[in-house]
């Protein structure tokens, strides 16, 4: 039976169990992620991190999760109350919804019922994840607008612009995967990677997806919407109590989603990694084992999220937008064209793969060689004060101290020239 | 729109409708209709936009129910995710307090709107009437079964309709590029000023003042951005307050309360520019 048939066969109780498990998974993953993030970043910065609640402070997240809903909730007087209530809901629900199409494992037996570890396998599963992320933006934008104060508004606008821009790069990086797998269904994409992970075959797509997934989730170094030094807390500045907790939840669930989606698209989903896949005729790829590989790969990405946060400084907004629109999107388009051309050539002419690899290597070598031939950017010393090695300004070498007797036009001209050399403005010689 | 949906539902009832589909329709149809009505009657522009989002989402789910998953999700991604988001963006940049202007810019606007509205209503009614009597629903079972929904759409889009498809995309790109060129023409002509040119322009008096605005007051009692700085003679430096802050509704209300109570401060004898406080 195919995956879709197996899933369509599920009884109602099994679907309910799966849905509840997915809901819990998001919440538990969020709590685990928060404490891990605090611990790991603390270790990277040579400090102990949370160390009060439970053994070594590992229960801190649980304490926070209990505390947050019971805090007083403050609603600003200028807030648009209905939209203010709606915003956290609109950001949380799509985040959880996207879990439904992620394939966590192959065929297993739950209480004697054969099924697949996935809630639903739609023929357009990839689009579901994209649609959910595009709906999640509403939460951010509306939160920023409805708070009725400038910082959240700016944060919301920034965030929306960022998520929309990087969603384009993200969508384009998925195109190559879809071309290779020939399907939009997440389950089929995983199955199609049994001969090789797309993360290896389509490295550029993988890299672009990875960068855009960090931009999409508003994480460091792209966490401009909540740049503390500029915008206080960004779009959720005016939120407190449970509503703030919902935004927090949505952010972390989104991180888990993009990581799980990346695993599905590029790292072979639940399939066992290479040396392990050789053991016992791929024994570790059956039953419940794949769950381990899937979460292993997902947590690898989540660790990189934390690692980046502990390592990189925040980008400036224009640099960030330039990276998205002028680097990632064009590079992606060129890469898609290359992939399409290669596939058409291969399918029509039946050229062996070795030829392509050789041609690719030659083209790459040529590009690298040409880039070395490019001249360095010239530093133009226009209108600058000449300085010595010590950095102090010195008078220009052709400076002539005029004699009062022969103060003639010729000398004056020369003096003007010297003055221009010393950094005077252009108005003086007009 | 919703009228057409109703018609479609009626046609489907004539052939066959599963219980699930009927339930989905009777939930989503009223929701879509409510969204449409809400969009027209909401006073706030952002609320209108949100009602429209509701309508679009309901339509997307209706597509899903009617065996068109690709169309449904593309509807959600493109219309709800991209287009309405841009609308919201513009609305927010315009500002939350700005209300509709009652001055009619176009002459005879109401007349033309009425005529065109009636025309549209006639068109829709005839279409619905025709759909109810002549057209029989075919269903998507056949194209969906052959190669799957997505592949069938791709095939017809890039085989049969490739020319209109490309033409549409060319039109859209032209429109987008044109809008950008028109929007940025000013900046391109002037070019960006360098820091030096800006300094010169400031001292030549092309800007309001040569220096940046003063920061807010930092005192032992308060260091809030809402606290104005004091000038050397003790008067309030109004420029030290952000315009955004004293434009908030609560601030205005406060002013009005004071005005009613008659506790507004009179002209300050020590102020450098007399009567400056009265202006706000």
TrEMBL record, chain A:
It is an enzyme of class 7 (translocase). It is a multi-pass membrane protein. It is found in: Cell membrane; Membrane. Residues 411-430 are annotated as: Disordered. The chain crosses the membrane at residues 12-36, 83-102, 122-143, 164-184, 196-215, 244-267, 287-307, 327-345, 351-374. Its EC number is 7.1.1.-. GO terms for biological process: aerobic respiration. One of its GO terms (cellular component) is plasma membrane. Keywords: Cell membrane, Membrane, NAD, Quinone, Translocase, Transmembrane, Transmembrane helix, Ubiquinone. PANTHER family: NADH DEHYDROGENASE SUBUNIT 1, NADH-UBIQUINONE OXIDOREDUCTASE CHAIN 1. NDH-1 shuttles electrons from NADH, via FMN and iron-sulfur (Fe-S) centers, to quinones in the respiratory chain. The immediate electron acceptor for the enzyme in this species is believed to be ubiquinone. Couples the redox reaction to proton translocation (for every two electrons transferred, four hydrogen ions are translocated across the cytoplasmic membrane), and thus conserves the redox energy in a proton gradient. This subunit may bind ubiquinone. Belongs to the complex I subunit 1 family. NDH-1 is composed of 14 different subunits. Subunits NuoA, H, J, K, L, M, N constitute the membrane sector of the complex. This is NADH-quinone oxidoreductase subunit H. It comes from Actinokineospora auranticolor. The gene is nuoH.
From TrEMBL, chain B:
It is a multi-pass membrane protein. Its main location: membrane. It is found in: Cell membrane. The chain crosses the membrane at residues 23-42, 49-66, 72-91, 111-132, 161-185. NCBIfam families: PRK06638.1-5 (NF005165). Gene3D superfamilies: NADH-ubiquinone/plastoquinone oxidoreductase chain 6, subunit NuoJ (1.20.120.1200). Keywords: Cell membrane, Membrane, NAD, Quinone, Transmembrane, Transmembrane helix. Pfam families: Oxidored_q3. It is an enzyme of class 7 (translocase). Belongs to the complex I subunit 6 family. It catalyses: a quinone + NADH + 5 H(+)(in) = a quinol + NAD(+) + 4 H(+)(out). One of its GO terms (molecular function) is quinone binding. Its EC number is 7.1.1.-. Residues 255-280 are annotated as: Disordered. NDH-1 shuttles electrons from NADH, via FMN and iron-sulfur (Fe-S) centers, to quinones in the respiratory chain. Couples the redox reaction to proton translocation (for every two electrons transferred, four hydrogen ions are translocated across the cytoplasmic membrane), and thus conserves the redox energy in a proton gradient. Signal peptide: none annotated. It comes from Actinokineospora auranticolor. GO terms for cellular component: plasma membrane. The keyword Ribonucleoprotein does not apply. It comes from the Bacteria. InterPro entries: NADH_UbQ/plastoQ_OxRdtase_su6, Nuo/plastoQ_OxRdtase_6_NuoJ. The keyword Transmembrane helix applies. This is NADH-quinone oxidoreductase subunit J.
